[in-house]
Amino acid sequence: MSELRNKLSSVFGEKLNRENPLPEHPRPQFKRAAMQSLNGEWIYRVVQKEDRKEVFRGKILVPFSPETELSGVGRMLNPDEVFEYRKNFVSAFQPEKERLLLHFGAVDQECEVFVNGEKVGEHKGGYTGFSMDISEQCTEESNLLLVRGTDGSETVPHARGKQRWKKNCRYSSIFYTGQSGIWKSVWLEKVPKNYLRYAKMTADLDEEGVRFSFAVNSPAEEEKIEESVHVRIFEPQIFASKTKEGEKGADPVKEAEEKPIHTEGMHLLYEGEARPGEEFFCKLALIKPWSTEEPYLYPVQFQYGEDSVESYFAFRKLSLGRDKKGILRFFLNNKPTLFTGLLDQGYWPESLMTAPSDEALLYDIRKTKSFGFNTIRKHMKVEPDRFYYHCDREGIFVWQDMPCGGGTYNHFFVTDFPNVWDKGARKIKDSHYKLFARQDQAGREQYYKDLEEMVEELYNHPSIVLWTPFNEGWGQFDARVATEKLRKWDKTRLINEACGWFDQGGGDLFSIHNYRYALKIKPEKNRVVALTEFGGYAFPLKEHLWSKKEFGYKFFSSEEEVTAAYEKLWERDIFPNVEKGLSAAIYTQTSDIEEEINGLMSYDRKVDKLTKEILKKLNKKLMEAYHSCF
């Protein structure tokens, strides 16, 4: 278990409350009143897999991984080691009429969970959440929770995204410090014996109504109740937070003013009954669509017996249509829309994949929107639920990637070759598993399980408008099959089947990554043309660097230089191609990350490299050019 050192920290990490880290409700879209956070100090140790010899022990601040500074550990787990977390807790509940649920936002990569020495569950996959009923194992006195697991990082075919245990590969600078163990919130929830497990909500703009389906727990046969779910829908509202500096944008030192989503004092729009296990449709008299300009959300309350849950949904429709020249374009709510955004990887210098605070999550979202962008491409990572909750409220599109997995990539094949000969790469079939490091059948099967879990976990968030199952051939396989599965699980969103290259001809996008050449596009017959990665201009800021090693696609030595180059790039590649069919542009990237210094912000978020005014001006011009095509 090697020691790690990092000198950078954001203001969010600097003001962390270590007595009560990330105290907010982890799942605001399925919210009950009785939530008990287990974030905070745990006992942590690492042992060898083979002989169980202890390598390290100490205290750790959950939910920050041991590889992070905020965890208080600062050490990296090796693939041949096992992590163990211990936490004592007391949760007074009445076993004769209540159940106690234990929730994990995510544990990387495989784990088993024990309560008072008895195994209560296990999970494989480091990006999605899981829950278990621990009522039978708990006492009214203090209880011992044990989480034990492993993280093979790139040595196993599980989803790992941009994490690497050893950065010894070609293009190692675009991969980041691996992390392990608990990295999202842990919490307890008291529920009645009969309770809601899941609510799926699909708002249909054309039919002016919403479909619900519910899953409930399965108690013993004699305890089952024949009861409906009582659904109450309230008038739509905009719940966007406001900054204390108004038009000047978010100040990271100040608290964001958040208008919470709740039902108190709101006008009741609809009330009805739904049967669990059956799809239920209700038509609404008042329809206000969700958009980035007006992110209307409908608060909703579910009552199942004594179980009460608060949630929300929104009306938004995604489709394809044609402009006045017959070129295929994106549409939102039956109107043409263009996606202009940033590649966002969600890393922080002091806490890696775990944002140091809820305010930090909100800061990046609001900063992106203040620059004039309307889209976040969430790259190779599944964020905590609160990230998407903030996107829903603030009004910003999310393109959601599935984190990559598989074996060791041949970067000459998946990176150099397609950059030089894009057309050639698009002719290669991804059924050649060896070429794409996907020989392991169990790994391919786990991929589909992880993909389905991600879709189910995030389905109800209106801000998510697109799924990306594969990126740049990293562990890609049978992409058309993944698209078919996504269409089955979710008929409401767009799909970018194979982002960048190794195109298999499916999905809704003809996806282009371009960092080297002048962009020249032509319309596609059946798919919309999207520039899904470009730019990556590097501007090192001496006092805000994580590493002496620096990576970017082009380097500049001053704000004036990088600004001039950025404007020239848009004038050369973006604006002229809009009339030819370009309908999306995703710039790389939101912030610097470790050796990669091509962000619009420094890694610690303390400096903007380009001014907001320049960025907003270019995005406004882009929108005007796009809408002139209709």
TrEMBL record:
GO molecular function per UniProt: hydrolase activity, hydrolyzing O-glycosyl compounds
Domain Glycoside hydrolase family 2 immunoglobulin-like beta-sandwich residues, every copy: 196-316
GO BP terms: carbohydrate metabolic process
Pfam families assigned to the protein according to its UniProt record, in alphabetical order: Glyco_hydro_2, Glyco_hydro_2_C, Glyco_hydro_2_N
InterPro entries: Beta-gal/glucu_dom_sf, Galactose-bd-like_sf, GH, GH2_Domain-Containing, Glyco_hydro_2_cat, Glyco_hydro_2_N, Ig-like_GH2
Residues in Glycosyl hydrolases family 2 sugar binding domain copies: 87-149
Domain Glycoside hydrolase family 2 catalytic: 329-496
Domain of life: Bacteria
Family per record: Belongs to the glycosyl hydrolase 2 family.
Annotated protein name in UniProt: Beta-galactosidase
Organism expressing this protein natively: Oribacterium asaccharolyticum ACB7
